[in-house]
Write the structure tokens for this entry.
Amino acid sequence: MATRVREHDEPLPGDLDSPRAKLVYLYLTTRGEASIERLRDELGLEKITLFSILDTLSSRGLVRKESGAYRPA
């Protein structure tokens, strides 16, 4: 499945302090969506770390999970 990459022209949310959270957020906003496995493979982060980051991003209304993939909200 080919992923379309788009330019990221929106500023990062000011309440993201973690470099890893910023990385995941930027990845999702430029790629559009990704499964946990794809995030793990492409970003080199452990699943447990990703679940924690995605939970935080989700609770702040920045991402949502839909059909097994994470997307920007």
User: Anything to note?
Assistant: The chain has a mean pLDDT of 88. Residues 19-31 form the longest helix (13 residues). Helices lie at 19-31, 36-43, 47-59. DSSP finds three helices and two strands in the chain.
